Amino acid sequence: MNDDTVMPKAPLKRKPVQADNIIAVASGKGGVGKTWFSITLAHALSKAGKNVLLFDGDLGLANIDVQLGLTPERDLALFIENKMPLKRLISTCEEIGVDVLAGQSGTASLSSLPVEKVIRIRDALIELADEYDYIVIDLGAGVDRTVRILSSAASQALILTNEEPTALTDAYAYIKLTHLAGLSNTVRVVVNQITSKSMGDRIYNTLVKACQNFLKFRPPLAGMIRHDTKVSESIRNQKPLLTRHPNAPAAVDVETIAKSLTGPHTPTE
User: What mean pLDDT is predicted for residues 254-264?
Assistant: First the structure.
């Protein structure tokens, strides 16, 4: 991995206001299991007794509602059009005990929103954070402006990657921009779809080596998730993994990651 990839324009210059209980899930690259992980993480936090909001921040390609088998009557477009406050767009997925704020799938205009509208979404999420133990944001793939602005609200950013070279390169790109924005203390790495611990260590160390060489920064590891055929089965059936196969290896791994997040960042009552 090298650092000669053409990067997007400079990230945010100033550190914005953050909420201690917002967790952003990023991947850099699509197709590494980010949305599934966001749903399963939110479900694991709910099972641990936390009040959780799951926000579909993949503007334009939103699919949390699809994976959960939901048909929300309201979505983010109503907030963007100034027709309804964010709070009134929330629905509840009873099956996982999590509130859901749906995006609007297939609407390209949402993926190219003006900066001020994206900032307005971010600020509204920060305001909502007072009403939840945790907000989990499923960010869009890539490192574009929308992803960077939404992730800036989070006190914890989990970057999901796997063994694919493009996944590692894009994960590094996300970490680099976060580091340049002065938010590197929020980043933790999750290695997905491993077949052995040695494989997970190799993937993580490859990413760490690039970060240390070029950024002089070592992102900590949040955890590893084992390759599990039960994951694809649960997605096909639009059933949460922790409901359908609560003892599956990947389910156990995500619950372990959730427990690691509920320490010093747990909101005070």
Answer: 89
Phi, psi (deg, nearest 5) at residue 66: -65, -45
Query: Could you give the angle at which helices 249-261 and 229-236 cross, rounded to 10 degrees?
Result: 90
Three-state DSSP class for residue 68: helix
Phi, psi of 48 (to 5 degrees): -85, 5
CA 98 to CA 194: how far, in whole Å? 28
Asked if 44 contacts 158 with a C-beta cutoff of 8 angstroms, the reply is: no
Q: Which ranges of the chain would DSSP assign to H, the alpha helix?
A: 34-47, 64-68, 77-80, 108-111, 115-128, 145-151, 165-180, 197-215, 229-236, 241-244, 249-261
pTM greater than 0.85 (yes/no):
yes
pLDDT at 147: 92
Question: What are the pLDDT digits (tens) for 2-42?
Answer: 675 544 444 444 445 789 999 999 998 888 999 999 999 99
